[in-house]
Design goal:
22 strands; binds zinc ion; alpha+beta; 478 residues; 8-stranded mixed β-sheet
């Protein structure tokens, strides 16, 4: 086709019209919202902050979700042909909420999958020792952390211990104002030149130096062996009924102590531990609870172990989703079969509800600015993940992106497209690729955050709200 040369002579107004009609420009959430909607954004985030405070581990997230769905009509049993919403918990660490739709399940479901684990320090199984008259717990970090971020900060210990008699003890020490906290020590700058300053950042603090201070009172006099270690054991025994061997049958997670906070004088931002990926988990939960009855069956899956590759019984690579689909078929009065289950999954549409890294104002060089996600520009669609030449990627197809884009535009969801960093810079993945094997349409979708995987991740309140709005539109769409 020939290009009309006359168009080169267009005036300013005509050129502006062309620009408006043709050029894609992302929209800042605040520019798209009226006063009433802005209030909704802030009130939505009050609930989100409470969720973050109560759900600092995967187990706590499951408990918290179960509390929030109380009296909302979710049955804990699957009854043949009941067509009622149900909840399925797996080993206390992953959970599915299912809301059957009016359409036959063979037409596929709408699936949101988010993860409820976050990077942290796990206690080793034989954690307790003493050194230089202080008692410590050894830790083993979980997920992708920058080790230097975990020193010199108040930490809390959350988790579960199975005692020798088989009884279960859940603890969370360090969150209440009256609780003690814990910490990892760091070297004073005066002596850090050779052992830290001359090293690479990720070598300056090693994994075996992430030791947690837990005590400093001795038991007995200076002739008593291991009296600081013994003192901690004695305390644990007197207050919690524990003996040292109990710590072997325990999952104790060390997380930043303290609550989610508003950030900035205008409170437009939110800072907290674990927003990857509890932001998407909370938005998924709220979307399932608030959605109007819809045609398609809605499933929100909350999984564990994403931060270490989705392996294990409670991760996205397990067959938890398949078992949920079998239950769903029973619930809808269909004779379950593997053939039908795979057909349902292949015909489904899914959002891998997870965060992306926002363009960092201080490190813009690692991003390719035209394609980076921006804080405050709404829920982010990440067409592909992976690293290098899309290695290890889930890559959603154009048709699916086209469907979602039209849906979000129609429903006035402020959204953007983003990728994680420059092509050769690094990368990462999510649970999406493990579900894509079923043949379903799946794409990463969630808020962009700053300081991702740090003890204090930063999100934009407008993005959190748009994530909820996007997820809800997705579940309600015919
Ligand atoms: Zn994540």
């Amino acid at each position: 086709m020939e290009y009309c040369m006359d168009k080169m002579k267009y005036g300013k107004k005509e050129i502006e019209k062309i620009r408006e009609a043709l050029v894609y420009s992302p929209v800042l959430v605040w520019d798209a919202l009226g006063t009433a909607d802005k209030k909704k954004v802030f009130s939505f985030c009050e609930g989100y902050k409470k969720f973050l405070d109560r759900a600092k581990t995967e187990r706590e997230a499951v408990e918290c979700i179960l509390n929030l769905i109380k009296d909302k009509g979710f049955s804990e049993d699957v009854t043949q042909g009941s067509l009622k919403p149900f909840v399925k918990v797996f080993r206390g660490k992953s959970l599915a909420l299912v809301r059957p739709g009016t359409a036959p399940v063979e037409d596929g479901i709408r699936l949101l999958i988010s993860h409820i684990d976050s990077p942290r320090l796990d206690l080793k199984q034989k954690p307790l020792y003493e050194d230089v008259d202080l008692a410590f717990f050894k830790s083993h970090y979980y997920g992708g952390i920058k080790k230097y971020q975990w020193v010199n900060r108040p930490l809390a210990i959350h988790g579960r211990i199975i005692r020798s008699d088989g009884s279960v003890l859940d603890i969370a020490i360090g969150e209440d104002d009256s609780d003690p906290v814990f910490t990892v020590l760091d070297l004073l700058p005066h002596l850090a030149k050779k052992v830290q300053y001359d090293k690479k950042l990720n070598e300056a603090i090693t994994g075996e130096k992430l030791n947690i201070v837990v005590g400093g009172l001795p038991l007995g006099d200076n002739k008593t062996k291991d009296r600081f270690r013994l003192s901690v054991l004695n305390y644990l025994n007197e207050t919690l009924g524990l003996v040292e061997e109990d710590l072997i049958s325990a999952e104790l997670e060390v997380v930043p102590a303290g609550k989610a906070r508003d950030v900035g004088l205008d409170r437009s931002l939110l800072g907290a531990y674990g927003q990857d990926d509890r932001s998407s988990a909370y938005a998924s939960l709220k979307a399932v609870l608030d959605m109007k009855n819809s045609e398609k069956t809605a499933v929100a899956l909350f999984v564990d172990k994403e931060e270490i590759g989705s392996d294990g019984a409670t991760g996205a690579k397990s067959n938890f989703l398949e078992s949920v689909i079998w239950d769903l078929m029973l619930n809808m009065g269909i004779e379950p079969s593997a053939y039908k289950a795979y057909r349902v999954l292949a015909d489904s549409r899914a959002l891998s509800a997870d965060v992306n890294g926002a363009l960092d104002p201080d490190y813009q060089d690692v991003h390719e600015k035209r394609n980076a996600a921006l804080l405050g520009y709404g829920v982010c669609l990440t067409k592909f993940t992976g690293h290098g030449g899309k290695s290890g990627a889930n890559d959603a197809d154009a048709e699916y992106v086209g469907w979602l884009r039209r849906l979000f535009n129609r429903k006035k969801v402020v959204w953007q497209s983003g990728e994680l960093g420059k092509v050769d810079e690094g990368g990462g993945g999510t649970a999406a690729k493990f579900l894509a094997v079923y043949g379903m349409n799946i794409i990463d979708c969630g808020p962009a955050v700053l300081s991702m995987h740090s003890p204090f991740e930063i999100s934009h309140k407008g993005d959190i709200y748009m994530t909820y709005k996007g997820f809800r539109a997705f579940l309600e769409a015919p």
